[in-house]
């Protein structure tokens, strides 16, 4: 009896408890999982002639054995099997290690195909396997991700068995019109091709078909969830006072850029809607996100509602509190700061006032989401640099209010491919314009041997009464990693800059109070130079700082370097960023050149993604990036755009929810038509 394709792999012969466990580690539980466990690469098994192969290449050679295989043992389990192979009059010496059982296949005069690694100097092949000599000449071998517990050959046997029995159950959720429109290979054929095809062209077609499907299904799900959210009435609707907002903008010492105006409008539209909205606001360093946040806070206030503004570090929380306080009259909008270092008595007062609704906006760190924090009328949550917050923390804070609207602000430009995948459920606003008169930060990449000259340059800036940042990557001596040490650097700069120059030290192991003290001193221009780890990375605003020196710059990601560079160039003076690095290899040098030449954060983030891949850029599983089986959001981004476009189009058609040709597609993506009737 044939079972269902979603049945456990145990229905296959030879799959017992142990194999079930092994397969589970690979994410394979059902027959369907097994059949969609695709090879991640293919080994070329076509026979090569010796002239066309390169040293160290893995190849298949075909020839006549000139002797029987000679087997020598050394130790109990170790063996070497050698023979000579005549490949078109070139005599190749072949060696197999620890595969004594191959001996019986090797006899003088027999024709053999041997797969192995070629050593050009010695005309020798380090053999890996003997292939059946009647193997088709264009053949290839599919290579699967596997574990120690299960062999490639075993996996392949299972897949073949599953294919034989279940191939007709591989039902294609794609309706005819979409298959045609996109020239997609039918699902079953594509699966077959991925596992068994020898034809490059067909394989590529299959791959693209599957990639399109993965992206398309995912974008459909995202789009659907987003539209559900939009249509729900579960959020709070902030009926702000437009005149107050207009009045506020008039009090600013500058006029908003067009980009800021656009984003303020987008945000305010969200606030008014009865649904709970999530909006990501991206803007390069210095693009002026704070004032956008301020407008939203004010909007909430004019409707008698509270805002929580969460920052990743104390320093940033404090700075946000400061810049917001400068924008508003205290008697009109009451802003308080709550962090881990708020004194108990003070904290008690703040908590009470929050509960009573006397505080309009609370700025803080993670302290804002602790259980003892109770809000009176939380309607808006703003998080700064939100990728540093875990999903759960965001959820916790959100749950404190009545589904508050959430704004995520980030100065880390997120490449479009990532933002429509990881943040696809959110709306995205981009402040893609700098306030007028902003100067570019002149950036130079310099080798460490020029350190003395760099210090001379720093001295000159200090003489001009400007301030300097020095960044070192790590705070503690580490013998294994050859990294600069922040205290050693501090000593170095203090000694070489002269006794008149005040050099401060800032790092993550300092207590919050000490950190604040140093930061405030730097902000107040009581320190000329600040040697720091990356704790100053985001948001810190000291307009008088004009020089940023980054040691071991090649250890940072491009986005992070760009962030650091953004700490200077915030005033009217010419600013500089000097990257000290001795990168090993071409890639490292390329990265240094790119950051020196590019000042556009978005362009850099695209480059970063290309060079490092999405995992590295985002750092953690928390990122919300889905795992695709075939698709790669970087390399396949052209397909992603197309799939997204079509998903949005389809969601906007009435037929999608009603026409039965989309039944399977809705099922595949878990989209349920709430109007569907099951019972008559
Ligand atoms: P970021 O986007 O990096 O958070 P900020 O909001 O800190 O940027 O703004 C950087 C600086 O630019 C602040 O000093 C702010 O007052 C100023 N600023 C913001 N918007 C404008 C504008 N439209 N014109 C001139 N200066 C502006
Ligand atoms: Mg900011």
Distance between the amino and carboxyl termini: 34 Å
- Topology, number of strands: 21
Helical residue percent band: 25-40%
Strand order of the largest sheet: 11-12-10-13-14-9-15
Largest sheet: 7 strands, parallel
Helix/strand-derived category reads alpha/beta
Rounded to an integer, what's the Rg over CA atoms? 31 Å
Named at the architecture level, the CATH assignment of the domain at 242-431 is 3-Layer(aba) Sandwich
Write structural notes for this entry.
This protein is an alpha/beta fold and 680 residues long. Among the domains are: 93 residues, Nucleic acid-binding proteins (OB fold (Dihydrolipoamide Acetyltransferase, E2P)), CATH 2.40.50.140; 190 residues, P-loop containing nucleotide triphosphate hydrolases (Rossmann fold), CATH 3.40.50.300; 157 residues, Rossmann fold. It is built from 22 helices and 21 strands. A 7-stranded parallel β-sheet has the order 11-12-10-13-14-9-15, with helices on both faces. Helix 6 crosses helix 20 and helix 7 packs antiparallel against helix 9. About 1% of the residues have low confidence. Adenosine-5'-diphosphate binds next to helix 9.
Please name the defining characteristics of this protein.
680 residues, OB fold (Dihydrolipoamide Acetyltransferase, E2P), Rossmann fold, seven-stranded parallel sheet, six-stranded parallel sheet, binds adenosine-5'-diphosphate, binds magnesium ion
């Amino acid at each position: 009896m044939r079972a269902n394709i979603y049945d456990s792999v145990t229905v296959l012969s030879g799959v017992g408890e142990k194999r079930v466990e092994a397969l589970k580690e690979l994410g394979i539980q059902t027959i369907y999982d097994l059949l969609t466990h695709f090879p991640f690469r293919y080994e070329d098994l076509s026979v090569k002639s010796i002239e066309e192969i390169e040293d160290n290449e893995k190849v298949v050679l075909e020839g006549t054995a000139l002797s029987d295989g000679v087997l020598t043992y050394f130790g109990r389990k170790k063996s070497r099997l050698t023979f000579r192979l005549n490949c078109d009059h070139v005599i190749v010496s072949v060696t197999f290690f620890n595969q004594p059982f191959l001996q019986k296949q090797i006899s003088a005069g027999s024709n053999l195909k041997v797969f192995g690694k070629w050593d050009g100097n010695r005309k020798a092949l380090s053999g890996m396997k003997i292939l059946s000599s009647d193997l088709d000449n264009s053949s290839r071998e599919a290579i699967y991700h596997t574990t120690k517990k299960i062999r490639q050959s075993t996996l392949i046997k299972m897949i073949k068995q599953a294919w034989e029995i279940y191939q007709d159950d591989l039902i294609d959720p794609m309706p005819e019109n979409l298959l045609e429109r996109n020239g997609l290979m039918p699902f079953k054929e594509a699966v077959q091709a991925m596992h068994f095809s020898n034809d490059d062209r067909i394989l590529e077609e299959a791959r693209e078909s599957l990639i399109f499907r993965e992206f398309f299904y995912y974008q459909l799900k995202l789009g659907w969830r987003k539209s559900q959210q939009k249509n729900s009435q579960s959020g709070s609707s902030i009926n702000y006072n437009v005149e107050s907002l207009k009045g506020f903008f008039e009090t600013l010492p500058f006029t908003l850029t067009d980009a800021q105006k656009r984003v303020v409008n987008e945000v305010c539209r969200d606030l008014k809607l009865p649904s709970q909205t999530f909006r990501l606001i991206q803007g390069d360093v210095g693009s002026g996100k704070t004032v956008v946040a301020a407008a939203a806070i004010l909007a909430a206030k004019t409707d008698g509602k509270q805002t929580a503004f969460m920052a990743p570090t104390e320093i940033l929380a404090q700075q946000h509190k400061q810049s917001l306080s400068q924008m508003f009259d205290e008697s009109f909008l009451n802003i308080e700061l709550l962090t881990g270092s708020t004194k108990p008595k003070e904290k008690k007062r703040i908590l009470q006032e929050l509960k009573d609704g006397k505080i309009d906006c609370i700025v803080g760190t993670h302290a804002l989401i602790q259980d003892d924090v109770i809000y009176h009328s939380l309607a808006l949550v703003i998080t700064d640099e939100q990728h540093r917050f875990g999903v759960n923390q965001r959820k916790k804070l959100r749950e404190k209010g009545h589904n508050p609207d959430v704004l995520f602000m980030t100065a880390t430009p997120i490449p479009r491919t990532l933002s429509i995948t990881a943040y696809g459920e959110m709306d995205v606003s981009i402040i893609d314009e700098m306030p007028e008169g902003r100067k570019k930060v002149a950036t130079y990449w310099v080798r460490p041997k020029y350190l003395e000259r760099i210090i001379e340059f720093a001295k000159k800036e200090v003489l001009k009464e400007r301030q300097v940042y020095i960044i070192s990557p790590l705070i503690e001596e580490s013998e294994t990693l050859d990294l600069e040490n922040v205290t050693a650097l501090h000593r170095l700069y203090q000694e070489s800059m002269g006794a008149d120059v005040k050099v401060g030290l800032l790092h993550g192991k300092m207590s919050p109070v000490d950190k604040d003290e140093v930061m405030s001193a730097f902000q107040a221009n009581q320190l000329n130079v600040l040697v720091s780890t990356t704790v100053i990375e985001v948001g810190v605003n000291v307009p008088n700082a004009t020089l940023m020196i980054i040691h071991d710059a090649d250890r940072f990601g491009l986005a992070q370097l760009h962030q650091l560079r953004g700490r200077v160039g915030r005033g009217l003076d010419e600013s500089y960023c000097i990257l000290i690095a001795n990168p090993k290899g071409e890639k490292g040098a390329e990265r240094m050149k790119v950051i020196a030449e590019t000042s556009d954060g978005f362009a850099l983030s695209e480059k970063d993604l290309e060079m490092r891949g999405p995992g590295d850029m985002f750092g953690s599983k928390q990122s919300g990036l889905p795992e695709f089986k075939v698709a790669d959001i970087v390399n396949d981004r052209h397909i992603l755009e197309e799939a997204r476009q079509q998903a949005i189009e389809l969601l906007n058609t009435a037929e999608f929810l009603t026409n039965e040709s989309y039944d399977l597609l809705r099922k595949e993506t878990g989209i349920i038509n709430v109007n569907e009737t099951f019972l008559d």
